[in-house]
Amino acid sequence: MKDQIQLAQQDTLAIIQELLEDGSDPHALYIIEHHISSQNFDKLEKVAVEAYKLGYEATDPDEDVDDTGNFVIGFDIITESPLDAELINAQIAEIITLANQFNVNYDGWGTYFEDGSDDEFDDEANETIH
């Protein structure tokens, strides 16, 4: 399991660096989505409950077909966090441990670009200055 955690963590710095190079706000809080999947809904449901007990939230499950044509169900374990590699890597370790406990797949993490604006629909922030 230690190798699995290290492998999952090795992309964290690169993801953060790419976001910052693209102009994402280094001081924003980010929605971090840890992707979980399995062919067994009951196992995923148990993971979601345990993740909630650890302070995370879970998205609704989605059905999909993987690269080999197998039916899978997936959902995201989410949290709000700064772009801090140490903090995100700690989340990865905790969630992979949980995923292994229930024999489900950890499929990595992701987040979204943040421009530093708290409200996209704020009229003053969206005014064009000439």
List unreliable stretches of 5+ residues: 120-130
Summed over residues and divided by their number, the pLDDT gives a mean of 89
Distance between the termini: 56 Å
- General form: globular
Strand content: 15-25%
Query: How much helix is in the residues?
Result: 25-40%
Keywords: Cytoplasm
Subcellular location: Cytoplasm
Domain Regulator of ribonuclease activity B: 11-111
Pfam families: RraB
Q: What would your notes on this structure say?
A:
This protein is α+β, with helices and mostly antiparallel strands and 130 residues long. Helix content is 37%, strand content 25%. Strands 1, 2, 3, 4 and 5 form a five-stranded antiparallel beta sheet that branches. A hairpin with a 5-residue loop joins strand 3 and strand 4. Helix 1 runs antiparallel to helix 4. The longest helix is centred in the last third of the chain and has 17 residues. The N and C termini lie far apart (56 Å). Interacts with the C-terminal region of Rne. Keywords: Cytoplasm. This is Regulator of ribonuclease activity B. Belongs to the RraB family.
Question: How are the secondary structure elements laid out?
Answer:
Blueprint: H1 2-9, H2 12-21, E1 30-38, H3 41-53, E2 57-58, E3 62-65, E4 71-81, H4 85-101, E5 105-110
Antiparallel strand pairs: 1-4, 1-5, 2-4, 3-4
Helix pairs in contact: 1-4
Give a summary of the structure in a few sentences.
With 130 residues, the chain is α+β, with helices and mostly antiparallel strands. It is built from 4 helices and 5 strands.
Question: What key attributes describe this structure?
Answer:
Alpha-Beta Plaits, alpha+beta, 25% strand
